[in-house]
Amino acid sequence: MIEGIPPGGRGALFIGGTWRPPSGGRYSPVVDPSTGLALGEAPVATVEDSRAAVDSAAENEERWARVPGHERARILRSGADRLAADRETMARLIASEVGKPITDARVEVDRAVGVYRLAAEEIRQLGGESFPADAYERPAGNEHRFLFTVRDPIGVVVAIGPFNFPLNLLSHKVAPALAAGNPVVVKPTSAAPFTALRLAEHLSAAGIPPGVLNVIVGPGDSVGDALVEHPATRLVSFTGSTSVGKRIAERAGRHAKRVILEMGGLDPLVVLEDAPLDVVVAATVRGTFGYSGQVCTASKRLLVHESIADAFGRALAERARSLRVGPALDEATEVGPVIDGASVARLERLVEEARGRSASVLAGGGRVSIGGGSFYAPTVLDHVPENALVVREEPFGPIAPILRFSAVDDAVRIANATPYGLQAAVYTKDLSRGLALAKRIRAGGVHLNDPTNLRWDALPFGGVRESGLGREGLRYAMQEMTEVKLISINYAGS
């Protein structure tokens, strides 16, 4: 039994500060993608459980909002300390539940620790503004008024997390919500419930009052919908697929609820003819094959100038073939499994479809047999046409498709040719040229001479078009999770 999984292998729901079984008595297996074996069983919440979790959060809304900011900061720092002390157990849980290589899982824990500490610091910056009332002609009497704004907690926040960063991306929702004075209902992915439940243990032990943090596990089409549509829910923060994000936005919009949506992407990495190949290839390996490509900001379309495409393809294929594919808990593993067998089958279909449209396979191109795990070889495709499905649908796997271009205008057109706009990268020695190109690419972030999958936890992060709504990043998420209130004071005659 992996440490961190409850005795007997069964998880419980966390509602109102107590651990309870799902009211329907149902559980579902949690499978290790590296082995295909069950780690334990996740509770399957009912709609009634979901409503109880939101009710509990709503009952404690005013209580948590009244807790002084310095006390909320102390609790968040204590939670960060507990996570840091539990680093290895948390990392092994992540590696076992979602197949992330253990070295990367440790980094995820470290980043999550930093997120709670950053959120504690940002509480001091969550203020309003003052205005010179006498600068406004109307309404009359402004020379005797003082005007200022404050930020009030928005209310119950629902945090819906993905499988690929089951701790850090969930923390990017939980930490700013708590820091801003909001109670939270967490719905982690059913693939990694134990990571989220252990996080709840740490935050509860750090001093989060009962009912302020609740954790529900279950399917989105019942549990998720119930959380979104509950009358007391005021904001939904979601990371996941665009199709599910659109559904959440539609349901939330019916009741004028705010959303923060981090959705899909087909992030382009543009390589101009003067780019240093050794630097670009190393960055592409990180950006495309890191965590088996299961990252929303992974470099999913490699737009390479035709004059260097042959050399780039050969060098990238050589690196891809040298990567060590293996189980997530193996310290030497560089590329672990994808999340499940269905993902392997989908990657196979995408590659075969691209080959049928004239793409050539320079490396990989098929599944890797390691025990009962879900492994797919790091794959490099060249001469990929623009209409191939692998560059029109988010593959979420270790596939590097090369699309060739001859003119910068073509690169811009291809980069902007999808409904998405999360992040992008441009490699060139000519920074003025790179900046000009960055301005033309429609994305929430563009990195010059760095891979697409960079993210600063304290800075704004999000996409445009069908990649998202709103922004994460601690200060920016906290602003989204608060309401601006204008207060006026008339001191005439006082």
How would you describe this protein?
The structure is a single chain. The chain has a seven-stranded mixed β-sheet, sandwiched between helices. Strands 9-8-7-10-11-21 form a six-stranded mixed β-sheet, with helices on both faces. Helix 1 (47-59) packs parallel to helix 8, helix 3 runs antiparallel to helix 5 (102-122) and helix 6 packs across helix 15. It folds into two domains: 7-263 and 466-485, Aldehyde Dehydrogenase, Chain A, domain 1 (3-Layer(aba) Sandwich); 268-448, Aldehyde Dehydrogenase, Chain A, domain 2 (3-Layer(aba) Sandwich), CATH 3.40.309.10. The radius of gyration is 24 Å and the shape is globular. Helices cover 37% and strands 20% of the residues. The longest helix has 21 residues, at 102-122. It is of the alpha/beta class and 494 residues long.
Per CATH, the superfamily of the largest domain is: Aldehyde Dehydrogenase, Chain A, domain 1
Radius of gyration: 24 Å
Q: How much helix is in the residues?
A: 25-40%
Helix count from the secondary structure assignment = 15
What is the general shape? Answer: globular
- Strand element count: 22
CATH classification, class level of the largest domain: Alpha Beta
The major pleated sheet works out as:
7 strands, mixed
Tally of structural domains: 2
Low-confidence segments: none
Q: Alpha-carbon distance between the termini?
A: 70 Å
Strand content: 15-25%
CATH architecture of the largest domain: 3-Layer(aba) Sandwich
Mean pLDDT: 96
Widest beta sheet: strand line-up:
14-17-18-13-12-19-20
User: Class by helix and strand content?
Assistant: alpha/beta
Under CATH, the topology of the largest domain can be stated as Aldehyde Dehydrogenase, Chain A, domain 1
